[in-house]
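quick q for whoever's on today - can somebody do inverse folding on this one?? i tried earlier but teh output was garbage lol. tokens:
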């Protein structure tokens, strides 16, 4: 970190998930790890701000992304390219929290209607995974 803080411009980018905003019942460990990373990111950003550091701390919050990990899921996904475009746009605007695609809308829904957010992440159609 000292090396980064010594540079004129430097940044750390963490990638969390909409599952850092509300938990997935079928991906509890993943949700928990993303929540921990989100808290760490915000804490680190504030710590560095208080200490006068110019190091920028960004958090990328994508929705479900089409990767190998999600290949078998039939849910709505965005491409990796679209996620990267959203990240680059957010970085260019110095948005420290960068929500891409449906993560923007989900963030608002979950903030004002957390029960609806929870149901969106945990639809009844996914409950069969819990029984296996």
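ok took a stab at it. sequence:
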């Amino acid at each position: 970190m000292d090396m980064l803080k010594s540079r004129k411009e430097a940044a750390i980018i963490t990638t969390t998930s909409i599952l850092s905003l509300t938990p997935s019942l079928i991906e509890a460990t993943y949700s928990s790890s993303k929540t921990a990373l989100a808290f760490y990111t915000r804490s680190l950003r504030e710590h560095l701000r208080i200490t006068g550091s110019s190091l920028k701390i960004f958090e990328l919050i994508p929705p479900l992304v089409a990767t190998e990990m999600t290949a078998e899921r039939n849910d709505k996904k965005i491409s990796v390219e679209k996620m990267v475009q959203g990240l680059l746009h957010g970085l260019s605007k110095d948005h420290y929290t960068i929500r891409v695609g449906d993560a923007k809308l989900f963030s608002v829904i979950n903030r004002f209607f957390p029960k609806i957010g929870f149901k969106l992440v945990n639809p009844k159609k996914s409950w069969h995974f819990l029984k296996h």
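fwiw The first helix runs from residue 2 to 5. also The longest strand covers residues 56-61. so keep that in mind when u check it
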